[in-house]
User: What shape does this take?
Amino acid sequence: MKNILFYLVTILFYQHVLSQNDWENPEMFQQNREKARASFYPYSTVEKAMYDKPSNEDFIKCLNGKWKFNFTDHSDKGVPNFEKTGFDDSNWDEIPVPGNWEMYGYGYPHYTNVVYPFEKNPPFIKASQNSVGSYITYFEVDDNWLNREVYIQLGSVKSGYYLWINGIKVGYNQDSKLPAEFNITPYLKKGKNKLAVKVFKFTDGSYLEDQDFWRLSGIQRDVFLYARPKTHISDFFSKALLDANYENGVFSLETEVRNTSVKKVSNLKLQYQILDAQGKEVLSNESAFSIKASNIHTLSFSGDIPKVHAWSAENPYLYTLLLNLIDSKANTIEATSIKIGFRTTEIKGGQLLVNGKPILLKGVNRHEHNQYHGHVVNKEDMLADIKMMKLNNINAVRTSHYPNDPLFYKLCDQYGLYLYDEANVESHGMGYKPSETLANKPEWKAAHVERILNMVERDKNHPSIIVWSMGNEAGTGPNFLEAYKAIHERDKYRPVHYERAEKETDITERHTDIIGNMYAPINWIEKGWVGTDAERPFIWCEYSHAMGNSSGNFKEYWDLVRGNRQIQGGFIWDWMDQGIVKYSENGTKYWAYGGHFEPEGIYTDGNFCFNGLVNPDLTPHAGLFEVKKVYQNIHFKDLKISEGTITILNEHFFSNLDNYLVRWELMENGKAIQTGTFEPTGVSPQTEKMFNLGIKDFNPEKGNEYFLNIYVLQGKETELVPFGHEVASEQFALTAFEKMDIKPIVSNDVVVKDIPEAILITGKNFTVNVSKKTGAITSYKLNHYELMNNPLTPTFWRAPTDNDFGNRLQLRAEVWKEVMNNVTLESINHNIVSATELTINSTLKLPTVEGTIDMAYTIYGNGEIKVDYTFKSSKTDLPEIPRIGVVFRMPKEFDNLEYYGRGPWENYIDRNTAAFVGIYQSKVADQYVVYGRPQENGHKTDTRWLTLKNQSGLGFKIEANGKPIEFNALHHSTEDFDEGKKKSFRTPIDVKKRDFVEVHIDHKMMGVGGDDSWGSKPHKPYIYYTDQVYNYSFTIRPEL
Assistant: This one.
């Protein structure tokens, strides 16, 4: 009976599987697809192979261009028989290939992070939520193609598809970020041929593609045809390593040659050559062989290269590997070439070593994104990203969260970036528990392993790839364990990473070689990880969440890295804001995010796709400048200004500093009084050396402030980094800031008039009004010109940043936003100190925080106003205070800004190491920093003084007394950037330039934070509570 029941259940199961749609069957992810192979182009001659440009090869045809296209928003309503040769497509639209159909008006771009964009019921996709794109194109086949094996390669199709040639079904494929090849030889005819492709927006594979990005569809990478000889090179694995001393090259090559004919082929030869960068042969060999009909022959080679030029991201030296398949008459049957680099990656002593060195990964996570084309990126996009990274000391990329276009790897090989190559596996929306994750379900095992191994097969020959990553946020279970073992079986020379490995699972076997807990806080690493794993390094796979105005406390991360040998860096989340260009009704361009395209009722994660260090057009956020500074590879210490010496530390692992130039400047009160340059020669990797700056006698004058600024410049132009580019910098304070509170010498009298509503003060060229109801300065006229058209009042609020929203500051700390609404004037009095001096003292009572503000104005006959501010509260259980300062407004024409403080870009108390103290001049309008979602911006710290003047030179100079101040000056109000208690899909086009300049003079503003954007606050040193008294002082001076 038990046997009968078993067979019945089995039969029912297989009937169910067989009745399933292919796109709703986790065990059906390909039909008739060729085995994955390494990326290379086949050529008919050695010369063409060496040039490696497929457009020069007669037997390679690119099918990119305009294709016929039909869109249906329901997977059960596709166009029947469109693949047939007689089908009339004359009324169909045309669409670019590659291209995401949503970018051309079919359906809509949809942004969601974790929540699936369809009803969760694996492996099924509700037909009403699944659209279909039907594609048709035509191509010509010449006679000389018909006696060859013709393959089609579709580089990336989202999400699954069938294809037909001349009405005959060829196959089916899933995995939207790897190429699929099909042999289409049997279906071709001479002349015009029809290719039809039916693409499903979602398939069961979409449950493994739940990445944090726009959900876009279509044929999104190149489509190629290859006409290959019946006998051809089907795959090869080049292992270019270093010996135990990391000096000599150790080369091995596994090559597969395939015979697709029905006859044995004899007297073949396979030759290989390795050529250096000058084209000189350094290693070669050949092997004769024969292949049986319809068979594959494997050949292996090995050899050594003495004193090889090793590849690293610092020195990306590439050799050319040429393969030449030769027939019995010594004619080339097929040839190909790739660039290879000799490089060893290994885990030893708990460290990740490249060429024997414990490198530091100064990395970013990078999505493939183009502001106009979605997930379709071209060579120019890739090069622009790589160049921007190299200019900002970024040396590593995690291909989050899928294999990138093959060209990106070639460019990283060429220009030097370390890569974590990541498989297209993420099922975040399923959850991580063993009962939830697909990684724990046997019917999904083959899909997991296949995706991961196919990535390895495609990318195995790239030296830039130093670590394989099995995916992201997909739980863990037997499926990842098996993939881990399979990778190590296939490639014994690279470590494997998976962040979720060994968490929330019963599996005890190790299945990651690197610990990479995303967003692990510094204190957790220090107290919870250091010393617990002597065999594996720690490298954040994601950290320092760069959403909006963020990237705070970044230096602290790297203080930890540089202080612990097993912590070797990480990958910032992430590189670019994933904004898509959209236009308002009046034609104004802006970057749209989640909620700007989706119909009402469709779940979206809003602007959570705006996490980048750069905007979608590659303009940098200020956080990138901080990253560049912290990531720099050259450091300075032991400055002895009296002796004029400084020690330079070279943090490179493979490069000396001979190709750089050092420039220094000695600054007095923000102006250079001495400058000099020298060449930092003789500093080997990971060593330091003392240099003489050449400073002449330095005799600081009391009351003046001195800094030494040092800049390291590119001394030798490279392909991506121009001569003179600043690669590193440092600023040393030589004296402390001392602004003595000196009473000005004034000869002009002040006249005081006390009326019921105000105290009126008049002096030479100026009048000041102080309200007796609020205690605020309500007016300041200079030469009868109003400079202050809004009262000078205390403020405790800033427009919430994305990190603030993430930790719910807008709710938790709302008391500080509302505190001034209930303020009362407890007292105000004035005292005529002398004919030239008046003091006004007021006390404001803040009942909601049980606090007081004491404001003291000392007004002099020359128009100066010294402001002394003291805030205290007896209530100690209050939330953090966003800012402590005052605000007022000036007419819009006072837009010429000069200041002496940190700049020139915006900076905050926890993100200002890259912003040097100096004198900067610009317009108020230039202080506005455009974030994709409007928020707090434009702040400056450590300010000694600032001036705001009109074109005639009339205005204010505001000078710190005793300790520096902070400030904002914008043609916008705080309210312009404040969305209230929840976000409302605002963009910069919602922020209009105002007819005033709003000026904040702050004692302190809390840091912006950056650990994450969903709960973490700024670090303790950069956050303020009512556990202390806050006081500061500044002077407002009229400028004529």
